[in-house]
Amino acid sequence: MILCGHSSYPRELQYAKFKAIGDEVGALTMADVSHLGGLIAGNALAIRLDVGFDVVTTTTHKSLRGPRGALILCRKEYGAKIDKSVFPDYRADAI
């Protein structure tokens, strides 16, 4: 897995290059935009996350200014595995 992201310093990484390298070597790709989520959502940064990452994580309380929490966005094929790792008693068939 190739993980890209950084501290709270808002700078624009070349996310498409991370994804291209991941595709080239057959690695999953993940972007952590916890400190930048609100800036990305508000178009304050020219960051494009629609390059096809397998997983994107962010928080709801830093730059989104919501209640303390987090978001894990992923491709459908990884959803059940991530849910199971975050919520060990999770059963998709119980919903």
Task: Give an account of the 3D structure.
This protein has 95 residues and is an alpha/beta fold. Helices cover 28% and strands 19% of the residues. It has a 4-stranded mixed beta sheet.
Shape: flat
Counting H and I runs of at least 4 residues, what is the number of helices? 3
Q: Tell me the radius of gyration.
A: 14 Å
What is the number of domains? 1
Q: Please give the alpha-carbon distance between the first and last residues.
A: 30 Å
The name CATH uses for the topology is Aspartate Aminotransferase, domain 2
The mean pLDDT is 85
Helix content: 25-40%
The spatial strand order of the largest sheet comes to: 1-2-3-4
Low-confidence stretches: none
* Top-tier CATH class: Alpha Beta
Main sheet, how many strands, which sense, barrel?
4 strands, mixed
Could you spell the SSE succession in H and E letters?
Answer: EHEHEEH
Please name the CATH architecture.
Answer: 3-Layer(aba) Sandwich
Portion in beta strands: 15-25%
Kindly summarize this structure in a few lines.
The protein is of the alpha/beta class. The chain has one domain: 3-Layer(aba) Sandwich (Aspartate Aminotransferase, domain 2). The protein has helices at residues 15-25, 37-41, 76-86, and strands at residues 2-5, 29-32, 55-59, 70-74.
